[in-house]
């Protein structure tokens, strides 16, 4: 996956006869190479910085790295038998190698740069964390019981799924939606396929859970904008036409969060029962 230019979102594409909006045509050529100030994905930068800082702390000190993984990785026996459910969250900020952190943070930067300005910071964080936790729960429930798992990829996949939902819901507003959705599905499918390869250490269940979380959440809370009468100057200006304000969807977010908590409790109890049964044999 190659990095798109900073302004290469569907809204920035060149105008077409069907009247679909674009920003590039409305901007002076000198401004098209830089992102408007209000479109800066500040939370994306913060999340990348936190993940990289944690990784570098472990990279600089083997003792710190060992402590981080012992205390924070998603290791099902500790979650199911010791009740350490916090690992479902802390594992999202740990990475196992330079390649692992690089590809996850690169993907987070690329997708966050387009999702955060449109969805807004509150929706962005909800999808990132609730989607990532959904990936952690599915990994806990269906992954290898004795294999620890780490990484932000579940949360990143949730953001990819959220943008896919948004593009589909605005397929009459954006240009080249079918091509972008095909490309997104190809990337997700390719990652899942690689995870099936013998010897792969990729946590496919975490990825699948992230996609499910992103799809469900975005389908209900993603912004819904009408086709603007003129090309907006920025993505945030476009998003101000939102006809699906988050405050009206908060009860559904709460229901999702409680369902997630219920899934955690159920999974932990089932795993603990299965482990006790195995020990008793």
Ranges where pLDDT stays below 50 over 5 or more residues in a row are: 1-8, 11-17, 21-33
CATH topology: Rhomboid-like fold
CATH architecture identity: Up-down Bundle
Q: How many strands, what sense, and barrel or not for the largest sheet?
A: none
Structural class: mainly alpha
Measured distance between first and last alpha carbons: 49 Å
- Strand fraction: under 5%
SSE sequence, one letter per element: HHHHHHHHHH
Question: Number of helical runs?
Answer: 10
Give the radius of gyration: 20 Å
Q: Kindly report the average pLDDT value.
A: 85
At the first level of CATH, what is the class? Answer: Mainly Alpha
Structure description:
With 281 residues, the protein is mostly helical. It has a single domain, classed as Rhomboid-like (Rhomboid-like fold, Up-down Bundle), CATH 1.20.1540. It contains 10 helices and no strands. α5 (98-142) packs across α8 (204-221). The longest helix is centred in the middle third of the chain and has 45 residues, at 98-142. It starts with 41 loop residues before the first helix and ends with a helix. The model is unreliable at 1-8, 11-17 and 21-33 (pLDDT under 50).
Topology of this structure?
Elements: H1 42-60, H2 62-72, H3 76-82, H4 87-90, H5 98-142, H6 153-169, H7 177-195, H8 204-221, H9 235-239, H10 250-280
Helix pairs in contact: 1-2, 1-5, 3-10, 5-6, 5-8, 5-10, 6-7, 6-8
Provide a quick synopsis of the model.
The protein has one domain: Rhomboid-like fold, CATH 1.20.1540.10. Helix content is 63%, strand content 0%. It has helices at 42-60, 62-72, 76-82, 87-90, 98-142, 153-169, 177-195, 204-221, 235-239, 250-280.
């Amino acid at each position: 996956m190659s990095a798109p230019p900073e302004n290469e979102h569907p809204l920035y594409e060149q105008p077409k006869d069907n009247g679909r909006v674009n920003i590039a045509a409305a901007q002076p050529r000198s401004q098209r190479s830089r992102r408007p100030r209000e479109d800066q994905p500040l939370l994306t930068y913060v999340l990348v910085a936190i993940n990289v800082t944690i990784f570098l702390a472990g990279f600089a000190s083997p003792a710190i790295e060992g402590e981080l993984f012992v205390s924070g990785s998603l290791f099902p026996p500790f979650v199911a038998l010791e009740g350490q459910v916090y690992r479902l969250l802390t594992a999202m900020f740990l990475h196992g190698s330079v390649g692992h952190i690089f590809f996850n943070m690169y993907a987070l930067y690329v997708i966050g740069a387009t999702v955060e300005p449109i969805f807004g910071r509150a929706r962005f964080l909800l999808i990132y964390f609730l989607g990532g936790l959904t990936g952690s729960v599915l990994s806990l429930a269906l992954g290898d019981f004795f294999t620890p798992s780490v990484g932000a990829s579940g949360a990143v996949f949730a953001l990819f799924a959220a943008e896919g939902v948004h593009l589909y819901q605005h397929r009459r507003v954006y240009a080249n939606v079918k091509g972008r959705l095909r490309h997104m599905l190809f990337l997700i499918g390719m990652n899942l396929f690689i995870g099936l390869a013998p010897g792969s250490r990729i946590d496919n269940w975490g990825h699948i859970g992230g996609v499910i979380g992103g799809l469900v959440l975005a389908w209900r809370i993603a912004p819904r904008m009408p086709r603007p009468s003129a090309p907006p100057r920025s993505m945030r200006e476009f998003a101000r036409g939102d006809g699906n304000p988050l405050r009206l969807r908060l009860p559904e977010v709460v229901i999702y969060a409680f369902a997630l908590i219920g899934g955690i409790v159920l999974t932990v109890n089932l795993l603990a029962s299965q482990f006790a049964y195995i020990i008793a044999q």
